[in-house]
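Open question from group meeting: does this chain pack into something compact, or does most of it stay loose? Before anyone orders reagents, we agreed to write out a predicted structure and look at it together. Recording both the input and the output here so the notebook holds the full record.
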Amino acid sequence: MKKWLLALGLSGALVLAGCNNDTEEGTNADTENQTEDTTENQENDEQKVKKELLSAQIALTNTFKPYQQKISAYKAAVSAEEPDPEAIQSAAEEAKTAASEASSMVDNYTVEADLPEDVMTKFEETLPSLQAYYEGVEKALNENMENADFTAAEEKFTEFNDQFNEILKEAGFPATPDLMEEMS
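Structure tokens returned:
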């Protein structure tokens, strides 16, 4: 009888150990599935943010490209091998008007993107630097239309570009654009 009780006790212990092990494996499998789901959701959210940021960048560059092209045309007229004073004067007038309009446009610009609130706030915080750039261009052209010094204005654009690129880096973009080149 003692042998039989010993055998029954050992069998019961094995059964309990086996059941306990199954429970742990089930818990581990559930945890792994939840981790995979969470990781997949995070990746989907990151891709969505990247897509929205790219869309917002394209909208921004398309909005300000016409203005920036006029400023670039002025720079090209001034730096021509044989500068034409009439072409410079005409380009300067257009660039000055474009800078003024672009500055006003920044005031009313709204970011049309479905971005998380913190990313949206950072994006909107870049806009004053862009506005300061256009104001600086206008000021430089008011001071000297024949050979405007855009140094201070370009510093503001660099600040804008750096701020915007920081947002892209935080979102996981492998490379960042030169927005001046994109708008020109």
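Observations to bring back to the group:
The radius of gyration is 31 Å.
The longest helix spans residues 2-78.
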